[in-house]
C-alpha cells in the first residue's frame, strides 16, 4: 500500500486568544486523492488547512507523505505542500506575474534563466502566458487566482491546498478552475461552501462542525446528511 499523502491523528488547536478551533481531528488522504472540506463558517476548515501546510502548529500528529511534521521536518514539508490562499492578494507580491511565479524556484536556489523558463512553462499550462508582464495588483480576481496557482504549481508540490478557491470567480472561471483541478495529479484539499463545485472536483467530502470532522463520505451523501444545500 502506498504512503498516505496526509495522515492526521488527534489534532487540536486553540488560538492564542483562547478560541478553540480544532478539537480532535483524525483524517487520512491517499496519494492523488481529492477531498472537499464542507462545514459552517467558523467550523475549523481554514485552521485545519493551515496545519496541513505547517503554518500553524497544534497538538496531535500530522504526517505528510509519511513524514511527521516537527521542527526538523517543517521546511521540507512546507516545500512539499502548495497552499493557494483564499485572497490572492496574500499570495502575489512581485511587480509582474512572471517575476512572481519565478520567485519560488529562484528563492530555492534555481538559477535565474531556469526559474524564468519554469515560470513561463507554468503560465502556459494555465493558459495565462499573456499576463506575464502585468502587475498582479491590477489583474481581475480570476486572473489573480490563476497567477497564484501558477506560483504554487511551479514548485511542483505533492499536496495542493485550496481555501475557498471559487470566491470572486464568475461561473466560466469556476468551471475552468474545476477542469484544471481535475487534471492535476496531486492530492488535494479544497475548502468550499459550494457543493456543486465540490462535487465537480472531488468524490469525497469531510464535514467540519465545531472543530471536528462530523462526517466523511461521498459529496452527495454528506450534503444530504447535513442538509448542506441552498433551498
Ligand atoms: N486568528 C484567529 N484568532 C482567534 N480565533 C480565530 C482566528 N482565526 C480563526 N479563529 C476562530 O477559530 C474558529 C475556526 O475558524 P476557521 O477560520 O478555521 O473556520 P472556517 O471553517 O474556515 O470558517 P469559514 O467558512 O468562515 O472560512 C472560529 O471560531 C474562528 O472564530
Ligand atoms: Mg475559512
What does this structure look like?
With 231 residues, the chain is an alpha/beta fold. It has a domain at 33-43 and 81-225: Rossmann fold (3-Layer(aba) Sandwich). The protein is 35% helix and 26% strand. The strands form 2 sheets. A 6-stranded mixed beta sheet has the order 6-7-8-3-9-10, with helices on both faces. Helix 3 packs across helix 4 (112-125) and helix 3 runs parallel beside helix 5. The longest helix has 14 residues, at 112-125. The termini are far apart. The mean pLDDT is 95. Residues 45-46, 163, 191 line the site of magnesium ion.
CATH superfamily of the domain at 33-43 and 81-225: P-loop containing nucleotide triphosphate hydrolases
Give the helix level as a range of percent. Answer: 25-40%
Shape category: globular
Low-confidence stretches: none
Give, in spatial order, the strands making up the sheet with the most strands.
6-7-8-3-9-10
Beta-strand fraction estimate: 25-35%
Order of helices and strands: EEEHEEHEHHHEHEHEEH
Structural class of the secondary structure composition? alpha/beta
Bound molecules: adenosine-5'-triphosphate, magnesium ion
Please name the defining characteristics of this protein.
alpha/beta; binds magnesium ion; 8 helices; 4-stranded antiparallel β-sheet; globular; Rossmann fold; binds adenosine-5'-triphosphate; 231 residues; 6-stranded mixed β-sheet
How are the SSEs ordered, and which strands pair?
Blueprint: E1 6-14, E2 20-29, E3 34-39, H1 45-52, E4 59-64, E5 67-68, H2 74-80, E6 81-84, H3 97-107, H4 112-125, H5 141-153, E7 159-163, H6 171-183, E8 187-191, H7 195-201, E9 204-209, E10 212-218, H8 219-225
Parallel strand pairs: 3-8, 3-9, 6-7, 7-8
Antiparallel strand pairs: 1-2, 1-4, 4-5, 9-10
The chain binds adenosine-5'-triphosphate (ATP) and magnesium ion.
Amino acid at each position: 500500500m502506498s504512503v498516505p499523502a496526509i495522515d492526521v491523528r488527534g489534532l487540536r488547536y486553540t488560538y492564542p486568544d483562547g478560541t478553540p478551533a480544532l478539537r480532535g481531528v483524525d483524517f487520512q488522504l491517499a496519494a492523488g486523492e481529492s477531498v472537499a472540506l464542507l462545514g459552517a463558517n467558523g467550523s475549523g476548515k481554514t485552521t485545519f488547512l493551515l496545519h496541513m501546510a505547517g503554518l500553524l502548529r497544534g497538538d496531535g500528529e500530522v504526517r505528510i507523505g509519511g513524514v511527521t511534521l516537527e521542527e526538523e521536518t517543517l521546511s521540507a514539508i512546507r516545500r512539499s505542500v502548495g497552499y493557494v490562499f483564499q485572497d490572492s492578494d496574500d499570495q502575489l507580491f512581485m511587480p509582474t506575474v512572471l517575476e512572481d511565479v519565478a520567485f519560488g524556484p529562484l528563492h530555492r536556489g534555481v538559477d535565474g534563466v531556469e526559474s524564468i523558463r519554469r515560470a513561463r512553462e507554468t503560465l502556459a499550462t494555465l493558459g495565462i502566458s499573456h499576463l506575464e508582464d502585468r502587475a498582479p495588483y491590477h489583474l481581475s480576481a480570476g486572473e489573480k487566482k490563476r497567477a497564484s496557482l501558477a506560483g504554487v504549481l511551479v514548485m511542483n508540490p505533492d499536496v495542493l491546498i485550496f481555501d475557498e478557491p471559487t470566491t470572486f470567480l464568475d461561473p466560466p472561471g469556476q468551471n475552468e478552475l474545476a477542469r484544471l483541478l481535475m487534471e492535476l495529479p496531486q492530492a488535494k484539499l479544497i475548502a468550499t461552501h459550494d457543493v456543486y463545485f465540490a462535487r465537480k472536483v472531488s468524490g469525497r467530502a469531510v464535514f467540519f462542525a465545531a472543530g471536528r470532522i462530523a462526517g466523511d463520505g461521498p459529496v452527495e451523501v454528506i450534503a444530504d446528511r447535513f442538509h448542506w444545500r441552498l433551498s
